[in-house]
Amino acid sequence: MTGQHGEGKQGEEGLDSIQDAIGFWWGIAPPNAAALSFARDVTAIPAAFARLSPGAFEGEPADFPAVLERFADPVDLP
Amino acid sequence: MTVDLAAMSLAEAAAGMARRDFRAEQLVDACLARIARDDPAVNAFIWSDGQAALEAARAVDLRRAAGAPLSPLSGIPLAHKDMFANSGRLATCGSSIRADHRTEGRATVLARLEDAGAITLGGLNMSEFAQGPTGHNPHFGDCRNPWNSAHISGGSSSGSGAAVAARMVFGSLGSDTGGSVRIPAACCSVTGLKPTWSRVSRHGAMPLSFSMDCVGPLARSAADCAILLQAIAGADAADATASARAVPDYRAALTGDLRGLRIGLPRNGFARDVDDAVQAAFEDALAVLIARGATLHPVDLPAMDAVAACSAVVSRVELAACHAQWMRERPGDYAASVSGRIWPNYAIPGALYVEALRRRASVLADFAGPVFSAVDLIATPTIPKMIPTRAETDVGSGAEGVVQRFLSPSVNTRPFSYLGLPAISVPCGFDQRGLPIGLQLAGRPFSEARLLRAADALQRDTDWHCRTPVPGRLDEDV
After folding, report:
1. Tens digits of per-residue pLDDT, B129-150?
2. Per CATH, the architecture of B5-469 is what?
3. What is the ipTM of this complex?
4. Does residue B476 contact residue B418 with C-beta atoms inside 8 Å?
5. pTM to 2 decimals?
6. Which of A30, A55, A61 shows the shortest C-beta gap to B343?
7. FRET pair for B256, CA 20 to 30 Å: which of A23, B99, B234, B354?
């Protein structure tokens, strides 16, 4: 995946986008130089999601505890 | 000859209390003496209240003298990560923002421990707002590794790992969102258990990531962790997310028998670049487990790309939401490593966050189905590299590559947090510099008893967890 939602958003262009989005939605400026270093990890997120297979239309977060139960260890071990 | 009561394990102290070998007041005195002697070098405590602890201990002694039944925690001195509500006492969250914060009411986990007779000695150092795997803290001072002060203690439950290792307390509660119990356990050579998400109530605990936060014990052994988990696990009317599933008898599971246990060695999804000393200790630990009856099986882990992508989103967005007001109004009150880490998360779109949560059930099913039909547990080094120094990982230094070095201790612990699976870190050796190495075991949901059984089996045949540091040692002393 490349283009506007892929690896093309990484690097300096991605950092600029992050800074602009946070300024628009939250009005918070980068508090220090470390913020821009940590932001490099965030620029990799769009491409990581783009590589995933499509999610289920019906999926909902509330299913998670049910799946924990479904695969649970027995209460009493042999 | 004087016996140092603080040198015992929690289980030994409980047995001694039951036999009336000593009083709870003597246990507290022994721990307070350790704190006075060693905490100046370790900095594990943010605050302590020896007077209140002694009064609580005397009350336990009076109840015992009156014939009241004892629990395994009666009179046992503990201290916890400073992030739990505790009847108006301090809960700083390791921050200057909450340096004077006192919360009414008690966290369910503290209420359960104290109602069982445990004595709370104080609040322990931690990474600010549980942000960071190293234990740096500019507000209260870094928590230092009791095995070597120049090195990180691990975080974010830094004081918990260090105080237990230095024998200042018999056990501690920490919290684990991406490795914050397991990493300090590995760095300090103690045993630390992240339970299944929902196994332990979070009522009264500081939030970081609602979807991934877990409260778990750190102690000197798996047997000690079993005692602590027994007290805190289970349903809680004050926390709707706490599971109502029955709580096993964890101590009864510690049989030492691993026959039939299948341990998976991941072919993917975890660090491939492992330091030689760590790999050697890891393999030695596996050999001990095999001798106890376990078998090893290489295993391919499905869905790990989704785990990596989604876990990066969930905890970041929830963290950012918790801190939005303070990030707007007082960003300068955070450490650079904390505000710098929170800030970029405000750019992650809401739809992506919901997508990461929506996928969580199917990702867990895709993972757990094939993996846990092939193996019972998964084994990795807790931290694939030898423990770095505090200087090497100090984000405030601005050094080239420091952010990646700062984040690296959690590379093997994070995946199990998004999956909600339980995982334990067990001491399994020391490197050539005398710094600890940890083995991580993870299992299917609610498999804490199986994890504790395996960890206990390892500890029956090794003494890594029995070794005691000499706090204050530096690299130049080696």
Report:
1. 999 999 999 999 999 999 999 9
2. Alpha-Beta Complex (3.90)
3. 0.94
4. no
5. 0.96
6. A30
7. B234
